Amino acid sequence: MAMIQSFPNIWLLSDERNDAVLEQALTRLPRGSGFIYRHYHLPDAERVARYYALERLARARNHVIVLADSALTALEWGADGIYGSPLSLYPRRDLLMLATAHNMREIARANRVGADALLLSPVFSTHSHPGALSLGPIRFRMLAQYARIPVIALGGMNSSRARGIDWPHWAAIDGLS
C-alpha cells in the first residue's frame, strides 16, 4: 500500500452533483479523511485543472487523495491512490488501491487483486442510481465479512447512517456535500 499516515474512516467522492460545494465539503471533513476524485463529466483539460484546484485544499487538510483513473495518471497527477472496478486494478505497492464492489464476485476479485480496501455499495438507496435495489444493512454486513481488506460503506451514507449500522469506514457524495 502507498505510504499514508492512517487509513481514513470517512471518504468524500466527487461527482457532477456536488462539484459546486466541494471546496466547502473538503474543508469541513475531519483532517486526514479520504477524497476520491472522479469528475467523469468534465473534458480532460478541465478535469485536470479541477483536480489540482481541489488537491491544494485536500492536501492542506492532510486528506488522502485517490483518483478514478489509471495508475499512470494517478502517479503523474500526484494522487495517493487509484479507484475502480477490481477488473481495472492490478497489483502494485506504490499506490493505494480502492476497488468498487456490489456483490460476492467483485469482493472476491478485489481480494485476489490485492486491493487495499473496497467500497461496497449501495448500502441504502442513492441519488446516483435511482430505483436500483440497495443491499440494506444486513446484506451489507453479510457481504462485507468476505472481504479480507477494509470495507467502506457507500450508497446513501451519512454520519447518522454510519452510526446506525455501526460501521467505521464510510463514503458519500451527497451525504458529505
Describe the structure.
- This protein has an eight-stranded parallel β-barrel, surrounded by four helices.
- The radius of gyration is 15 Å and the shape is globular.
- The protein has a single domain, classed as TIM Barrel.
- With 177 residues, the chain is α/β, with parallel strands linked by helices.
- It is built from six helices and eight strands, in the order βαβαβαββαβαβαβ.
Summarize the entry for a quick read:
With 177 residues, the chain is of the alpha/beta class. It contains six helices and eight strands.
User: Within the CATH hierarchy, at the fold level, what is the topology?
Assistant: TIM Barrel
- The CATH class designation is Alpha Beta
The number of distinct structural domains comes to: 1
Number of strands: 8
Q: What structural category characterises the helix and strand content?
A: alpha/beta
Major sheet attributes: 8 strands, parallel, barrel
Number of helices: 6
Radius of gyration from CA coordinates: 15 Å
- Could you tell me the strand content as a percent range? 15-25%
Strand order of the largest sheet: 1-2-3-4-5-6-7-8
Measured between the Cα atoms of the first and last residue, the distance is 28 Å
- Kindly report the name of the CATH homologous superfamily: Aldolase class I
Which CATH architecture is right?
Alpha-Beta Barrel
